[in-house]
Amino acid sequence: MPNMTDDKQMTAPQITRSQSLVMGNWKMNGSISFNNQLLNEIVAGVVSVSAANMTAQLVVCVPAPYLAQAQGRLAETPVQWGAQDVSVHAKGAYTGEVSASMLTDFGCCWVLVGHSERRTLHAESDELVAQKAQAALSAGLTPVVCVGESLQERDAGLAEAVIKRQLAPVLALGPDAVKRMVVAYEPVWAIGTGRTASAQQAQDIHAVIRRLLPSSDHTPVLYGGSVKPDNAKTLFAMPDIDGGLIGGASLVATDFLAIASQ
Ligand code: PEP
């Protein structure tokens, strides 16, 4: 569970960096039977691995229709579950949208906002992503704010500037809000491509992000982008990398567990 500290204005807890966090993003993959097997394998693996080898908090972010399935299988286990997106609206005539309170109805504690696939395919702006983060916080959910530059932006020397621009409206929500979030740095050129950022490339951007954040104890910053069992250890050893957001490898229980055991 996220470490809870004071909680006066918002219901979402403050998140500390004391425990590493490994989150799976299933994207639009899965079926009842596939998920059943995957969740069973993840839970069995977590339970069988000794506490010394599995110090990370595991979370799976599943497609919205499978939240009830995740809740049914994962409640009473150490594995938590979350969603991949949330509406900025609380309720009403917003066909196809899912509100933050609907996510909490299914026991979610976490929700991704601003994944690059949503920014690109659904034209989500930096401001909208910040509004989604606020909607999540107000319902008691921990938003995982995804940021990252494209290859073109990196090649033009704009990586830092892009990250700062993407984070600006999120940081404007204020330090109290930001302490209740997670940031995930996911260079777009490394997502689903098999091409990962080197540990040093990732660390450099994580250090930039860390300097923007209000507290060195809160707001874990995760790395995402083709994290696999064979590169997770080097990435997670970097001082400003607090865990990972895992796409493809989170659909294979042995890989997800191996990453989380690094
Ligand atoms: C992601 O979708 O958030 C991601 C990091 O994907 P992958 O691990 O497959 O690159």
What would your notes on this structure say?
It is a single chain. The protein is of the alpha/beta class and 262 residues long. The protein has one domain (21-260): TIM Barrel, CATH 3.20.20. It is 39% helix and 14% strand. It is built from eleven helices and eight strands. The chain has an eight-stranded parallel β-barrel with strand order 1-2-3-4-5-6-7-8, surrounded by six helices. Helix 1 (32-48) packs parallel to helix 2, helix 1 packs parallel to helix 11 (253-260) and helix 5 (126-138) packs across helix 7. The longest helix is centred in the first third of the chain and has 17 residues, at 32-48. The radius of gyration is 17 Å and the shape is globular. The structure holds phosphoenolpyruvate. The site of phosphoenolpyruvate (PEP) has 14 residues, from strand 8.
Tell me the strand percentage band.
Answer: 5-15%
Total discrete domains:
1
Taken in chain order, the helices and strands follow as: EHEHEHEHHEHHHEHEHEH
The CATH topology assignment is: TIM Barrel
In spatial order, strands of the major sheet run: 1-2-3-4-5-6-7-8
Distance between the termini: 19 Å
Bound molecules: phosphoenolpyruvate
* Structure summary, number of beta strands: 8
Assigned CATH superfamily: Aldolase class I
CATH class equals Alpha Beta
Average per-residue pLDDT, rounded, comes to 93
